[in-house]
RNA sequence: GCCGAUGUAGCUCAGUUGGCCAGAGCUACUGAUUUGUAAUCAGUGGGUCGGGGGUUCGAAUCCCUCCAUCGGCUCCA
């Protein structure tokens, strides 16, 4: 007998060799039907794999992320079986579960596949699923595994076997399909009740662009048909939030072929958004002791040779222009210019920290395939500043920056994010990273301590640092689920020395400052793109391009409406009058569709009483207000949004 | 940059096997209407069918090429 400990700490005894499925059945048949896999002593196992020793056990169902993963991993095998049926000789790369579904990388050889083929593959998968074929685990000696895939001619699996030790190799077989796989899998294919193939993409073998590109097929499966319908509905909803769609509808930005890819044109509404954002940032930074500077968009080659960017990152910059026998580059970052300003200021330790802020426009040559609406562009305005401080001041400065991030997140109601702390990889010192092992460790410790002390949740990832120091990136997700860096906070202990930056310390010795690169609002392009999706275009009133729309019932009230707009304008309220010869229902509809926060309706009664009827976007009629009252209402709402300390 | 898909009026789209001057709705403009909380009616205008080249008696439709966009991969200082 073995002792099984459940998550609630209850212990029960089972015969040696029992499976998670049998354990589930001993509790209830219903549970047994839902068990997809189990966590045995912290490792996810097949529900049908015998357990031979005392263990902590957690049964995994569709409600557990790991249960879903098991299902999707098995679904990848199911899709592989269907693919092999239609495309004999297909070779398989890897086929893992992902956040929403699974994919399989395949080499179709002579064949090709398009979305039109999805239906027949889905149908085949469902047919195979109905057969409820068992997923059978088999431990295989390495030589036998190699023999199997050599005979099958699958060089990708052979490549994978290169990295595997004898004794750790397992095959899983269901129906007519056998795969090299560590598992685990669901008990049989019958658990799959709904299948949807999502898209096709190219993917390099082992993620290496020098290797062959395979065809990646994405799909998702569910244990219930209704769950698939819900998922598809959710995808449709997400598409409605897409900043590219809303950005067009609300006339925020556009791209033009003659201007160039990745070079956004900000329409008047978009310009208001940026200006409001900058107004907030300037105010925040002024309070935090930053000074504003301004620098040109280009610089001579030598600046980037000094900074060390050119040898490493020339590919990411626009090619140089030649002028008077000199090469000039469009700046891809502001720091070198700011370093020069620091040098000119020639501060002593008494003047530190020096905090230089500039929302400089930078140009980066992103690969054409990388461009993505406002989220990934070639001209970008960084919410940039560089803080030069002493080692002693570092922790406090770094912490203050993090606090500024958190304050912004509160203002924008950003709740779903991850702080990603990127550190160096010692083996790559001198190549990818500046060769100064002590400083790396010392700086990373300083950053880690700040994070721990301020109890900011974070994840640490090795080998993702900047070449000049560790960094913290704030990761968020777009409406369609793509992850990207919103804000960044980087430590630089290397480049200031390259620029010969120094200050005189209290002992009258020259010392190199540490530099903190920080961009809490990332780039204004990406931040606005994110905000459009975050708010689905329903901006808080302080940001809204038009805060209200004044809607006269008929032409007779146009002049009173214009007067109201003028009065509101004196209080810095942004609005417009809908002077079109349309009925009020139409004007309201259009203002609602444009997501204008407030509509002021003006007719005979309002004009006579010197008042306005207020309708709130998405809410409806609020009743009649005097002009001072409406000003107060809006100003209160703005204060509430911005004063969140 | 790579794989795959897409590109028709300001916007959203139809035109699916090549065949009369390329269509619709919304927008815009003109007129009528003077309107009370999510679309008033009528008329008018608007398109090098992404660009270039080719096949054909004839191309939005077939082929080549370039550009852009979309989904991924790679990249992201």
Care to give the gist of this entry?
The protein is α+β, with helices and mostly antiparallel strands and 645 residues long. The chain is 36% helix and 26% strand. The model has no long low-confidence stretch (mean pLDDT 92).
Q: How would you sum up this structure, described in words?
A:
By secondary structure, the chain is of the alpha+beta class. The chain has 4 domains: 2-61, Ubiquitin-like (UB roll) (Roll), CATH 3.10.20.30; 66-238, Threonyl-trna Synthetase, Chain A, domain 2 (Threonyl-tRNA Synthetase, Chain A, domain 2, 2-Layer Sandwich); 253-535, 2-Layer Sandwich (BirA Bifunctional Protein, domain 2), CATH 3.30.930.10; 548-642, Rossmann fold (3-Layer(aba) Sandwich). The strands form 9 sheets. It has an 8-stranded mixed sheet, sandwiched between helices. A 5-stranded mixed sheet has the order 2-1-5-3-4. Strands 6, 7, 8, 12 and 13 form a 5-stranded antiparallel sheet that branches. Strand 26 (471-477) and strand 27 (483-492) form a beta hairpin. Helix 8 crosses helix 16 (524-535) and helix 13 (391-411) crosses helix 14 (437-453). The longest helix has 22 residues, at 65-86. 37% of the residues are buried. The model has no long low-confidence stretch (mean pLDDT 92). The structure holds one RNA strand of 77 nucleotides.
């Amino acid at each position: 007998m073995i002792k099984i400990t459940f998550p609630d700490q209850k212990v029960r005894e089972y015969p040696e060799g029992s499976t998670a499925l049998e354990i589930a059945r001993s509790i209830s048949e219903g549970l047994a039907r839902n068990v997809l896999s189990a966590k045995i002593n912290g490792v996810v196992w097949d529900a049908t794999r015998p357990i031979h020793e005392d263990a902590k056990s957690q049964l995994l169902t569709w409600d557990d992320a790991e249960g879903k993963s098991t299902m999707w991993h098995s679904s990848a095998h199911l899709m592989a079986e269907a693919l092999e049926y239609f495309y004999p000789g297909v070779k398989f790369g890897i086929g893992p579960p992902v956040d929403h579904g699974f994919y399989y990388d395949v080499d179709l050889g002579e064949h090709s596949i398009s979305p039109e083929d999805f239906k027949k593959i889905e149908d085949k998968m469902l047919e195979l699923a109905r057969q409820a074929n068992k997923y059978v685990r088999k431990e295989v000696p390495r030589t036998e595994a190699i023999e199997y895939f050599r005979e099958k001619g699958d060089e990708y699996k052979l490549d994978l076997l290169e990295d595997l030790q004898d004794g750790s190799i397992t095959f899983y077989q269901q129906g007519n399909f056998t795969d090299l796989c560590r598992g685990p899998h669901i008990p049989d294919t019958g658990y799959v009740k709904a299948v949807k193939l999502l898209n096709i993409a190219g993917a390099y073998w082992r993620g290496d662009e020098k290797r062959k590109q395979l065809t990646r097929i994405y799909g998702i499966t569910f244990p219930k048909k209704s769950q698939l319908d819900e998922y598809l509905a959710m995808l449709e909803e997400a598409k409605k939030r897409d900043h590219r769609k809303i950005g067009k509808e609300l006339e925020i930005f556009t791209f033009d072929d003659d201007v160039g890819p990745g070079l956004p044109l900000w329409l008047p509404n978009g310009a208001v958004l940026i200006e409001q954002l900058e107004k907030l940032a300037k105010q925040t930074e002024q309070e935090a002791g930053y000074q504003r500077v301004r620098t040109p968009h280009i610089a001579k080659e030598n600046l980037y040779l000094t900074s060390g960017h050119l040898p490493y990152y020339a590919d990411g910059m626009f090619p140089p222009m030649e002028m008077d026998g000199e090469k000039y580059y469009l700046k891809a970052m502001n720091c070198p210019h700011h370093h020069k300003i620091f040098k000119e200021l020639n501060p002593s330790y008494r003047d530190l920290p020096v905090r230089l802020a500039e929302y400089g426009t930078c140009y980066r040559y992103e690969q054409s395939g990388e461009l993505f609406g406002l989220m990934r562009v070639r001209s970008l305005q960084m919410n940039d500043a560089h803080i030069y401080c002493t080692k002693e001041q570092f922790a406090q400065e770094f912490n203050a920056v993090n606090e500024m991030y958190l304050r912004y997140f509160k203002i924008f109601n950003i709740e779903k994010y991850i702080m990603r702390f990127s550190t160096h990889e010692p083996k790559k010192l001198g190549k990818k990273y500046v060769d100064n092992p002590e400083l790396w460790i010392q700086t990373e410790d300083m950053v880690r301590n700040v994070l721990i002390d301020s109890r900011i949740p974070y994840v640490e990832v090795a080998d993702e640092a900047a070449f000049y120091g560790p960094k913290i990136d704030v990761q968020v997700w777009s409406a369609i689920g793509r992850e990207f860096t919103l804000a960044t906070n980087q430590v630089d202990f290397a480049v200031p020395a390259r620029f010969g930056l120094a200050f005189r310390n209290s002992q009258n010795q020259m010392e190199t400052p540490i530099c903190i690169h920080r961009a809490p609002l990332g780039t204004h392009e990406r931040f606005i793109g994110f905000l459009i999706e975050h708010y689905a275009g329903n901006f808080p009133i302080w940001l809204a391009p038009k805060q209200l729309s004044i809607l006269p019932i008929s032409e007779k009230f146009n002049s009173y409406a214009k007067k109201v707009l003028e009065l509101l304008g004196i209080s810095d309220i942004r609005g417009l009058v809908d002077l079109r010869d349309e009925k009020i229902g139409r004007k309201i509809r259009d203002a609602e569709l444009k997501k204008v926060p407030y509509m002021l309706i003006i007719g005979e009664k309002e004009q006579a009483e010197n008042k306005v009827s207020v309708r709130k976007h998405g809410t409806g009629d609020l009743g009649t207000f005097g002009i001072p009252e409406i000003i107060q209402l809006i100003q209160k709402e703005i204060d509430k949004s911005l004063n969140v300390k």
